[in-house]
Amino acid sequence: MDGSLANFGYWLQNRPFALAIAGSDWVYPFVQATHFTGLSVWVGTNIAVDLSLLGAGKKSTPPLQLSDALFIWNWIGFAIAVTGGFLLFSVSAATYLTNIAFLTKLGILVPLGLVLHIVIQRKAPEWEKSQETSSMAKLAGFTELLLWLSVITAAVLIPYVG
Ligand code: HEM
Fold it and tell me: Is 90 exceeded by the pLDDT of residue 152?
């Protein structure tokens, strides 16, 4: 690992808040539960809109309407997931920074998923108006679905890879 990245990892995991999380029997599981709650809301609301783009669900609630209705919960979920994720990361930052599954999750899959998610939220009104772009909407929804499933797969693999 690059020296400055390793130094950052050791610096972060020795901050008082990181040491307090690591040193307590109940704070770490609480932070874990926070991360899981946030990511459940984030991924759950994303999947609902992606499936709607693919044509699943009630036809009376088109993807744009669903995306607008879930918008606030969607980003609240993301904020909670990122806060919990950062706190989990801070406990063993130097180790996570050498973990290929963590680096793939955070360095590639989460940024890709996030960019596509923002594109979908911005393009949804256009797609709603034009029937021609519906194949584009389906492709975007399907790709986003795959990306968040890949994020979860990479996250689950973190403890099993070096
Ligand atoms: C927003 C999208 C995210 C999703 C869908 C996600 C998903 C997950 C899942 C499913 C796990 C559980 C792995 C397991 O215990 O089997 C996990 C753990 C974890 N996540 Fe996230 N995560 C997200 C964002 C983040 C962010 C932004 C960070 C860091 C800044 C992060 C850091 C971590 C860490 C450190 C763990 C614990 C890994 C371990 O040691 O087992 N996550 N994440």
Answer: yes
**Which tens digits make up the pLDDT trace of 84-113?**
999 999 999 999 999 999 999 999 999 999
Q: How many CB atoms lie within 10 A of CB 52?
A: 23
Q: State if residue 117 touches ligand 1 by the CB under 6 angstroms criterion.
A: no
**Cα distances (angstroms) measured from residue 129 to each of 62, 124, 126, 132:** 11, 9, 5, 9
81 lines ligand 1 (CB under 6 A): yes
**Residue 154 in contact with ligand 1 by CB distance below 6 A:** no
This prediction's pTM:
0.92
Let me know if 33 is exposed, middle or buried by CB neighbors in 10 A (0-12, 13-18, 19+).
exposed
Give the Cα separation of 84 and 159 in Å (integer).
17
| Residue burial 114-151, b: 16+ Cβ < 10 Å; e: rest | eebbeebbeebeebbeeeeeeeebeebbeebbebbebb
Q: What is the distance between the alpha carbons of residues 94 and 151, in angstroms, rounded to a whole number?
A: 21
Residue bearing the CA closest to ligand 1, atom 9: 155
